[in-house]
Amino acid sequence: MLSLPADAKADRVVVYKSQRKLVLFKEGVVLREYQIALGSYPVGPKQMEGDGKTPEGQYTIDYRNPKSQFHLSLHISYPKAEDIARAKKDRIEPGGLIMIHGLRNGMGALGRLHRYTDWTNGCIAVTNWEIEEIWRVVPDGTVIELQA
pTM of the prediction? Predict the structure, then answer.
């Protein structure tokens, strides 16, 4: 697969959890689609710390970690105020540190094989090559919509 052009920039990211797909958009046009792995219990929105679910709703990419244990990672702004309020009402911790990331350091050779099971703690996993491209074309502040 050819890399996206050096000057490509996404302005929106959509994750279709049921399809295990992450899509980058620029002005409504698809730039690239990636097959993904999700949390170990992916059906339904994230409710609390440790539930293995990936959040649903609209968030932003708010920072990046170049020293991630998973090659590179982009942080999703979960939990937002309503997630925190719901968790507080239910007397549970909402969880956090939800990322788009590559494979665990030292495991990059797995490549696409990692997609055969949902294995994260609620994050969105892609191959190392894919996270390098996503890292390059998705600026901080980009809207990410996580759909069932």
Answer: 0.93
Spacing of C-alpha 17 from chain mean position: 10
Cα(39)–Cα(46) distance, integer angstroms: 10
pLDDT digits (tens, 9 = 90+) for 13-61: 999 999 999 999 999 999 999 999 999 998 999 999 999 999 999 999 9
Q: Could you tell me the pLDDT band of residue 1, with boundaries at 50, 70 and 90?
A: confident
Smallest CA-to-CA distance from 36 within 108, 103, 81 is with: 103
Nearest of 91, 21, 77, 78 to residue 45 by alpha carbon: 78
pLDDT digits (tens, 9 = 90+) for 68-119: 999 999 999 999 999 999 999 999 999 999 999 999 888 888 888 888 899 9
User: Could you give the C-alpha distances from 9 to 5, 6, 16, 139, 140, in angstroms and in order?
Assistant: 9, 9, 20, 7, 11
